[in-house]
Amino acid sequence: MENETVSKNFIENIIDEDLAEGVYDTVHTRFPPEPNGYLHIGHAKSILLNYGLAQKYNGKFNMRFDDTNPTKEKSEFVESIKADIKWLGADWEDRLFFASDYFPQMYEAAVKLIKKGKAYVCDLTADQIREYRGTLTEPGKESPYRNRSVEENLQLFEEMKDGKYQDGEKVLRAKIDMASPNMNMRDPVIYRVAHMTHHRTGDTWCIYPMYDFAHPIEDAIEGITHSICTLEFEDHRPLYDWVVRELEYPQPPKQIEFAKLYLTNVVTGKRYIKKLVEDGIVDGWDDPRLVSIAALRRRGFTPESIKMFVELCGVSKANSSVDYAMLEYCIREDLKFKRPRMMAILDPIKLVIDNYPEGQVEYLEAPNNMENEALGTRKLPFGKELYIEREDFMIEPPRKYKRLFVGAEVRLMNAYFVTCTGYEADDDGTVRVVHCTYDPATKGGNAPDGRKVKGTIHWVEASNAGKATVRLYENIVDEEKGVYNKEDGSLNVNPNSLTTVTAYVEPVLMEAKGYDSFQFVRNGFFCADIHDSKEGEPVFNRIVSLKSSFKLPKA
Predict the structure, then answer these.
(1) pLDDT digits (tens, 9 = 90+) for 28-76
(2) Across residues 524-529, what is the average pLDDT?
(3) Which Gene Ontology MF annotations are present (predicted)?
(4) Residue 475 burial (CB count, 10 A)
(5) How far from 211 is each of 32, 108, 192, 228, 243, CA to CA, in Å?
(6) 67 — phi, psi (to 5°)?
(7) Which pLDDT value is given to residue 555?
């Protein structure tokens, strides 16, 4: 076992090399979201990767909000992101930062570039800058303002800061190379005028740094060693390296890119989620049909299931999509031994045991989880009238049907054998009541004479049953049509994504509090909704059904 090699991902290999060569003597990572929406499952991968690397190498992990764009940023999003990261178990200790904390240093950094002749104030409009930039096959043209003197640039940049210019009237650009094959290096804009109130700095600033300029500075100030980001920033890395090099940071951070986490048939785009919220199709950013981290938490997913999912996805350089069924597999695996298995009837019909004593209720012992004895047992009320699932009785059953029909004997879970003797139905054929007799000798679910039954059904005693609201979810996306409409780019919404039913449940389930989760026998895993559950009136969200054809891919 001592010679067994642990497989490492490519990022860990880079870190190992950097530590061995003395490039860095520690590992310091960060998670830097922009507070312009709620985080989703893809962000969970980044959070757990960055935090996991810091833990593995006994390093540090920073939480930093990249709040350089006051247009879409809100304190609401800041608070939701902090809650998500804490829930996932990533501990930033006392290292909570905001890019806006560094606005003075960023301004000074821009001044330093101007003094070095590496930045200039440009009067071209946004459209003109695009036009001058050239194409992938043609070099760009230099701005007519590119060769302003250092003194003039310093004066104009100070005037920009002092509010003398309108939005879009002037920008500060890095002076790099208008013929570079990398479009990001063709004199990118690094500061723009924006007369907007910032959620933290108020009206102190009317110029704001661009992300590609701000981000490497933030990393360098905080002593980040490995700046882990997603693959779309690979083309921005030369600019990242240029910024930290030209600003002469003594131990500049290293940017490393990895592939994003894509899930099939889910909505992660902020503008699409915003539209679903605004159109009232979902009840907020944490609606359980979404895959924001807050929505997954509300639906009943656990941090452990998310971590298992992220680990199964792995870390690579190649973009790929993962089936949502794998996420469902992870929550099933996490909950199946942890949660009690209770009885709840989602589509009820009444079962009357004609030979059971009138008015009698007895209490039967039932295990909370047959695969985990540590969860103990509970007492179940049992009486003459029960509720069973409508699908557990058929008038004309197909071959191999193992549940109730006239003449059939089945086991009532943890109770008795019963034999169906008849039923009552409405004029349209809808069954209302099923009649049966029970065998008192089979208490506990086994017959003293050794006879076997093929079917076992669950039930809830009628006089003690609680009535609870239960929400059943399907994908919010119409999976047959795909996520987006090819013609106009709109979402293909599944009109049946939410079904609400009233269920009869064991009395103990009426005491459930928000985030309490259970397995409902044969129906799936359910979680009490944190917003809509009230004392004695739980609302249960189905986390996931019990069965799936998904199998883990072979390694």
Answers:
(1) 999 999 998 899 999 999 999 999 999 999 999 999 999 998 888 888 8
(2) 98
(3) ligase activity
(4) 17
(5) 11, 16, 11, 15, 12
(6) -100, 60
(7) 52
Instruction: Determine the straight-line distance between the first and last CA of the chain, rounded to whole angstroms.
Output: 20
| DSSP labels, 1-26 | -TTPPPP--HHHHHHHHHHHTTS-SS
Residue 217 near residue 105 (C-beta atoms within 8 A): yes
Task: Give the rounded distance of the alpha carbon of 184 from its chain centre.
Answer: 31
Residue 92 tokens read as 């930033």
The pair of structure tokens assigned to 131 is 């036009």
Q: What is the pLDDT of residue 479?
A: 81
Which residue from 453, 445, 448 is spatially nearest to 407, judged by alpha carbons?
453
Is the pLDDT assigned to residue 230 strictly greater than 50?
Answer: yes
Judged by DSSP in three states, 100 sits in: helix
Question: By the 8 A CB rule, do 316 and 258 touch?
Answer: yes
pLDDT at 548: 67
The letter for the amino acid at 554 is K
Closest CA to 407 of 437, 443, 448, 440: 437
Determine contact, residues 171/192, Cβ cutoff 8 Å.
Answer: yes
CA distance 228 to 11: 9
Q: What angle, rounded to 10 degrees, do the helices at 324-335 and 303-313 form? A: 130
Cβ(79)–Cβ(241) under 8 Å?
no
